[in-house]
Amino acid sequence: MKSPVHRCRDVEHSRGQSGAGGGTSCLQEEQRIPISKDVITSSSASAMWFIRDACGIVCAIITWLLVLYAEFVVLFVMLLPSKNLMYSIMNGTLFNTLAFLALASHLRAMCTDPGAVPKGNATKEYIESLQLKPGQVVYKCPKCCSIKPDRAHHCSVCKRCIRKMDHHCPWVNNCVGENNQKYFVLFTMYIALTSLHALVMVVFHFLYCFEDDWTKCSTFSPPATVILLILLCFEGLLFLIFTSVMFGTQVHSICTDETGIERLKGETGKWGKVPCWEAMQIAFGGPFSLSWCSPFSGLSCKKSPEDHVAIPQGEIIEEDVIEIPLN
After folding, report:
1. How many whole angstroms separate alpha carbon 132 and alpha carbon 137?
2. In contact, 131 and 312? CB cutoff 8 Å
3. What's the number of domains the chain is made of?
4. Tens of pLDDT along 36-45?
5. Would residue 169 show up in a list of annotated catalytic residues for this protein?
6. Residue 250 forms part of a structural domain
7. Which helix (H) or strand (E) holds 161?
8. What pTM value is reported for the model?
């Protein structure tokens, strides 16, 4: 059974073939409307965004608990008992900075609208307000009744169509899309760096304890110290591998201008791709600067009136493939 997206494209393709055979106007694929981000904008872009998914909420809580566990072991097992004050200050500052940036990036990735298309805008009044040309075709998502821009896909968890959706990640309890991909990339990068730093400190602490008395290298008992360090080592190694792979995958997707779901569905080459460096600037919000590494860039408490676009009310059009002019 074909998905609604493929069914819509098959309908357009069949119309084009029949039009070519009968001498009528053909609906070519390039006639599909690349509805811009500026045209389809939700007022939720400046509002709080949170997905009420039990699995995602549990995974997000586990993520924070694992980072806090690493904080506990690093501070109370390795750094505070250390006799070298400079070593403790330098590594404590670096580790806490990386952990803070990782959690901040996680929060921004989770609470940022990934690029959701407004629900229920597939009305005759709204389509007429777009002032489209005759012969053009737009697509309606049958699940959320929204006009789908190019490269938008429906997420069954978010229950919305997401622009440039890469995938739904339960660890951030959100889709990774056009608006929050930067924060997801930063989250994976900072978690990988935090895990690497923790592993290096665990190795040095083991070497230090082997050379010295185990009862003096930690405030905990030797068995408890070994168990805590082994668990941290396992956690750090696991997340270093996982987040490094995810970081590389996301950077590759940005540079190739191709999302994970587009690659999975074989939807490549159907749009004009941008060069790698230009795609990176689009994803990270401008020319290269230190703001690329900051999860706080673009954060503002002010609501711009331009973010609110009134959607004309009316009845939802039943057809999934809508041809202009409307009947």
Report:
1. 9
2. no
3. 1
4. 444 444 444 4
5. yes
6. yes
7. strand 160-163
8. 0.81
